[in-house]
UniProtKB/TrEMBL annotation:
The keyword Signal does not apply. This is SDR family oxidoreductase. PANTHER family: 3-OXOACYL-(ACYL-CARRIER-PROTEIN) REDUCTASE, 3-OXOACYL-[ACYL-CARRIER-PROTEIN] REDUCTASE FABG. Keywords: Oxidoreductase. Transmembrane segments: none annotated. The lineage of its organism: Bacteria, Pseudomonadati, Pseudomonadota, Betaproteobacteria, Burkholderiales. It comes from Verticiella sediminum.
Amino acid sequence: MNTFAHDSTRIALVTGAAQGIGLSSAIALLRAGHHVVLSDRQPIDLAIVPAELRARASALVLDVADPAACADAQARIERELAPVTLLVNNAGISPKRPDGRSSGVLEVTADEWARVLEVNLTSVLRLCQTFLPGMQAQRHGRIVNVASLAGRTKSLVAGPSYMAAKAGVIGLTRAIAGEMGPHGITANCVAPGRILTEMAMQAGPEVNERYAAQIPVRRLGTPDEVGAAIAFLCSDAAGFVNGAIIDINGGFYMP
């Protein structure tokens, strides 16, 4: 178990930070000068963080679907660091069938539906409820929720449970933004399209090649591109950005 260090006034928590968008977001926030707690369901080896940034990085095992674990995480971070003021809700799942495809409306099971909504949507509310009081006390906070292109329009690859959850994340973010703005707290979404992550690779190379051919920039996005947008939304410079959705999809979807 990693010991936290007391060397930053802005504490960030990033969920699902072992890889992909979560890891890139954590590194971008570290480069911005924050102390970042990287959390995931499995232990994180901080060797994945560039050596020059590790002094301000901490690792924490956290299952966002476990209410007790979320409460314990909040207590530990406040005890060993300080209240979280930057919260990036990135953890998510997108179940696939053995052939790499998502279940259709008539195929999705009650268990899959409940699990996806629990991890991808309910946990966002849970973590916001956990850390918002500390932000209110400081009169400062940044919440960035990772939604998806699948929550904005019909997805070519995601299933109904994932689409519904990510659409819900967008609605929840707007509710938080409206209620918490007077407390100096902003809440925004990023809505990535097809990004080169392990989750995207589940669909197989042919699916991704066909997808890339339909994107105006003719490629998939990178986790670093999403992480940069998240770091901006966490910054002081983004103080007047509230309730927004930043679409990061190469022009595939233009609302």
